[in-house]
Amino acid sequence: MQQMLFSWDNVVAGNGVSLSITGMSIVFVALILVSAYISLLPKIAAFCNKIIPPAAHHSGPVAGAPAPQVKTGPSEAEVVAAAVAYLHKNKG
């Protein structure tokens, strides 16, 4: 079996240094572009809102809509609390 030799001579002979510097430069530029895009995103969104206004969302009740029904019985939390108290009291 042939023995593998690892040395810097093989890296230099295969243009490994220039290849690694080129790769790091590409990644660095891509990260700068992503960072610039994230920092400019609020300004881009504000510009897009001028062109296409956002849909109106209503947070309050709409006029003419039926009123929500009021529940008169115990809430789910009260039922769960009562069940836990019963189980805790009668666990022995």
Summarize this structure briefly:
By secondary structure, the chain is an all-alpha fold. 61% of the residues lie in helices and 0% in strands. The longest helix is centred in the middle third of the chain and has 36 residues, at 16-51.
What labels describe this entry?
single chain, mainly alpha, 92 residues
Q: How many E strands?
A: 0
Q: Report helical residue fraction.
A: 55-70%
Low-pLDDT parts are none
Global outline: flat
Oligomer: single chain
Radius of gyration: 33 Å
Strand content: under 5%
Q: What is the arithmetic mean of pLDDT?
A: 84
Distance linking N and C termini? 74 Å
SS class:
mainly alpha
Number of helices, counting only DSSP H or I runs of 4 residues or more: 3
Give the biggest beta sheet.
none
Order of helices and strands: HHH
